Amino acid sequence: MKTLKGIDALGLAQNKYISLKALQFIRRLCRFNPSERLGVGKYGIQEIRSHK
Fold first, then answer.
1. Which residue in 12, 23, 40, 43 has the fewest CB atoms around it within 10 Å?
2. What pTM, to 2 d.p., does this model score?
3. Beta-carbon-side half-sphere exposure of residue 50 (alpha carbons within 13 Å)
4. pLDDT by residue (tens digit) across 37-48?
């Protein structure tokens, strides 16, 4: 939660420097619940590699 709050505090939002896909990727890596984070599931690193 602290990490996610830090991201929100920085105003991490889609803009000309951060695409929507990049923003979604970062948010999935920084989920509060570790079991919901990208790459933790059944497919592990493959889930991260195939994220679009």
1. 43
2. 0.61
3. 7
4. 888 888 888 888
